[in-house]
Amino acid sequence: MGDEAAEAVADANKSLELTLKEVEKLKKEHLTEIKSLGSPPIGVKITLAGVVILLLDKIKKEKGGDIIMTADPNKMNKKEENFFETAKRYLLNDTRELLDMLKGYDRDNIS
Fold this sequence. Notes:
Blueprint: H1 2-24, H2 28-36, H3 42-63, E1 69-71, E2 79-81, H4 83-90, H5 95-103
Antiparallel strand pairs: 1-2
């Protein structure tokens, strides 16, 4: 069991290193384009959901916000988490700040 856990951690760290290399390639224009999307592709939504989750403590602390809830089109009177709208409201307004947060993310202290 310990070997499996160590292998999983090694795989996760490898994926993280690859992701960090990709984050370094991000430009302000990329984030501005994402913000302008009316209905982004599912890959964008999933990626931004991960970013919102990772930065949620910062969003709450520094911006006084939380995950935006919107009506679930599949369930009457139910709401669902809308990570894209949350990202637009709290992260994509200042693309330079978001880039700095992503590039300087403290991966060793994830809550």
